Amino acid sequence: MKTIVVERLRRTFGTFVAVDDVSFEVEQGEIFGFLGANGAGKTTTIRMIIGALPPTSGDATVAGFSVAREPREVKRRVGYVSQRFSLYPDLTVRQNLSFFGGAYGVWGKALDDRIEQVVSEVDLQGRLDELTGELPGGIRQRVALGAALLHAPPIVLLDEPTAGVDPRSRRRFWDLIRTLAAAGTTVLVTTHHLDEAEHCARVGLMVEGRLVALDTPAGLARTWVPGRMFRVEGTAAHRAIPSLRARREVVEVEPFGATLHVRTGEETDLDEVRSWLDPDAGVARVMQIRPSLEDVFLAVAGRGDP
Amino acid sequence: MIPALEIDALVRRFGATDALRGVSVTVAKGELFGLVGPDGAGKTTAIRCCAGLMDPDGGAVRVFGEDPRTEKARERLGLMPQRYALYGDLSVDENLRFFGDLFDVPPDAYAQRRARLLDLTRLAPFTDRRAEHLSGGMYKKLALACALLHSPDLLLLDEPTNGVDPVSRRELWTLLGELVAGGTAVLVSTPYMDEAERCHRVAVLDHGRILAVGDPSEIARGADSFESAFLRIVEAEA
After folding, report:
1. Which partner from A26, A238, B55, B232 sits 20 to 30 angstroms from A170, CA to CA?
2. Nearest-CA distance B166 → chain A (Å)
3. B38·A168 Cβ contact <8 A
């Protein structure tokens, strides 16, 4: 079942086209990743999908309701955690959850029950009476997720939920997201941590308002970064760049911090790459690596400045 | 050879909190060294001590053998803090000129370095744009260019890729790779575990202590990622 169906969505601000003819579908229980540089149109798309911003043209159907015609129905069926979602720092966790539950129309005994459920879902036991402003960032994000889940939405949209969150909390947050999805909640998430996006079933990439690539992470790598990729490490790996670039088997050599990423065709193997490198050039190690979503992102976005 | 940077048993307290509890690191000329750890690990405190902006409570820092608070050390040291104060109402070029004058860069050297840094940071098409109108990634690159104007031999960067999009992030790391290939020593802090593998060597910092130091591939050996290795190391300590 398709929970989100986006059809030719477009949004302009004056002469600026923020979102241009975007179409995609998300299945129930799927974790769908939405990637793009700052200003690529991700947040504008999300704001339309949650019914907060009317599209200029096109439409999206969310849990069967049109964002253009029935934005109120849509809002009741989505939970939204934004990067800038401000919980009240001077309220306790319980008071924040009560406040947002009320805002979503959950009251009284039903709200108390729901808070108890959500607190166990997002793992906040024992934190209910703490002041939200004094919690570490990772736990605060779990409170924000909890607040967005109070009305039991079938769809959750998360806009950079792990920005500035430490690695342990980030893992925990993703475990929660996977549990939610496994229970049937549809999740649409944007992130700048491309290593996280590997957890998504499918990933859409936006560039300048357009959705330019959409596939599984492995499928994207096959399409956008074809061939094999090797990492060259060593104190003087950079010295090998000109000779590597001169080889016809080599598609691309890219500096990756102190190391190099070397991309070749399918027929090249590790021993061959090793044989190209002068043992005196200070190369400590060569290994075959899987292209990451960051490699895909760079291939899609093209290099250079916006 | 004297190392570019020597941090020896560094201790720093803030009231009852031990921010650094005996941290030792050596960075050689031409080495890209990563200080990797979560928020609150002590990365910023360590970098501030290295830059001579903060006095340690114990241990010592030496920049090319000198105390970082001396002029001799400062001339060879470049710092890019987390929030680099550029002038928002000045253009890219005006900011460069301002910091060039501040660092006493001689006029003929300035013209040459300006051209090289604009090329390196790919900011050449944007010289007339006001700093406040730059994207996050471009702003960071301008800050880096300003920190490099006096051609430091040791560059200290505190979380340079925080809040930067993936394209600019890759560019910043490429730039650091080029700098170290040219002989500059770089100490860079990051909370992003996937950035560790871009360094020659890394130190894993948590709660003011170094839990592991060495070649990132060696540290990550047997784990599916550096992040998994990091979590294993941290949990083993706890």
Report:
1. A26
2. 7
3. yes
Q: CB under 8 Å to A213, separation ≥6 — which residues?
A: A203, A204, A205, A220, A223, A224, A296, A300
Query: Which of A175, A193, A295, A305 is the best mutation test for B, with the most CBs of B within 10 A?
Result: A305
For residue A239, the chain B residues in CB contact (below 8 A) are 181
In this predicted model, what pLDDT tens digit does every residue of B170-216 receive, in sequence order?
888 998 998 999 999 999 999 888 899 999 999 999 999 999 999 99
How far apart CA A231 and CA B183 sit, in angstroms, is 21
Size of interface A-B (CB pairs under 8 A): 103
Residue A64 CA to residue A3 CA, distance in Å, equals 7
Give chain B's domains with CATH numbers. 1-76+152-238 (3.40.50.300), 79-148 (no CATH)
Residue A140, min C-alpha distance to chain B (Å): 15
Contact criterion met (CB < 8 Å) for A168 and B231:
yes
Question: Does residue A57 contact residue A10 with C-beta atoms inside 8 Å?
Answer: yes
CB contact at 8 A, B164 and B136: yes
Q: What is the DSSP string of B21-37?
A: EEEEEEE-TT-EEEEE-
Contacts of B229 in chain A (CB under 8 A): none
> For B52-99, what is each residue's pLDDT tens digit?
999 999 999 999 999 999 989 988 999 998 887 789 999 999 999 998
Question: Which run of H or of E encompasses B63?
Answer: strand B58-63
Between strands A228-233 and A210-215, the pairing is unpaired
Cβ contact A167–B227 (<8 Å): yes
A250 conformational bin, left if phi > 0, alpha if psi -120 to 50, beta if neither: beta
Using an 8 Å CB-CB cutoff, list chain B residues near A256: 170, 173-174, 177, 198
Using CB atoms, which residue from B194, B199, B231 is nearest to A258?
Answer: B199
pTM, entire model: 0.81
Spatial distance between the Cα atoms of B41 and B209, rounded to a whole number of angstroms: 8
Contacts of A302 (CB under 8 A, 6+ apart): A207
CB contacts, 8 Å: A38 with chain B: 135-137, 165
The answer to whether B181 contacts A284, with C-beta atoms less than 8 Å apart, is no
